[in-house]
Amino acid sequence: MTRRILISLIFLFSCTAQMTSKKITKNNTELLYGQINKEQLYFDYPVWLEQENVYKPNEEELKNIQGYDKDINIYIFLGTWCGDSRRNVPKFFKAIKGNSHFKTILWAVDRKKKLDNDLIEKYNIKRVPTFIFEKDGVELGRIIENPKKTIEADIQDILLLKK
Fold first, then answer.
1. pLDDT tens, position by position, 42-83
2. What's the pLDDT at 156?
3. Number of Cα atoms under 13 Å in the Cβ half of residue 3
4. Beta-bridge partner residues of 141
5. How far apart are CA 49 and CA 22, in angstroms?
6. How far apart are CA 22 and CA 15, in angstroms?
7. Contact between residue 125 and residue 88 where contact means Cβ atoms under 8 Å apart
8. 130-135/72-78 β-pairing
9. Which positions ≥6 away from 81 have C-beta within 8 Å?
10. 9 pLDDT exceeds 50?
11. pTM value?
12. How far is CA 35 from CA 104, 105, 115, in A?
């Protein structure tokens, strides 16, 4: 019995350790920093998951996005301290949910929009969130800060899915 409890505790600890995020504290504010994933983001900020769950995207546009069948890398630069990120990143995840052709790579920046690498300069990030769509290393388009229409309509426009 003791062995079973010990194994359970080790398993629980290893699962929790995987959800440890790289956080920094600046100006008395704790924030995620560096490369993260959606699971870490929602683990540390469960209200973002709630935002995704309540968002109601346009069904027709959603179907078009779900039917997209080409591999796309989507680089997402966000700030966990940023209201636009809090509002738009969960909507974005709801819009692309279920399409395995979309690979998201998330980078959490500090308030000065800095990282410990050269990606901010490489991708010319000035505002967050910024969603950059790349296919075969070529940028197709980006959504900066707030969508022009809606998240799903802007995704459709970038991927030329208008019908």
1. 999 999 999 999 999 999 999 999 999 999 999 999 999 999
2. 95
3. 0
4. 133
5. 19
6. 16
7. no
8. antiparallel
9. 29, 31, 111
10. no
11. 0.85
12. 11, 8, 9
Mean pLDDT of 10-23: 53
- Residue 55, both tokens: 């968002």
Owner of token pair 């870490």: 40
Distance CA 45, CA 28 (A): 17
**Token pair of 1 as six digits:** 């019995």
Rounded CA gap, 131 and 145, in Å?
8
Output the DSSP codes for the chain: -HHHHHHHHHHHHHHHHHT---EEEETTEEEE-EEE-HHHHHHH-HHHHHHHHH----HHHHHHHHT--S-EEEEEEE-TT-HHHHHHHHHHHHHHTT-TTEEEEEEE--TT---SSSHHHHTT--SSSEEEEEETTEEEEEEESS-SS-HHHHHHHHTT---
**CA diameter of the chain:** 62
CB-based burial label for 38 (10 Å; 0-12, 13-18, 19+): middle
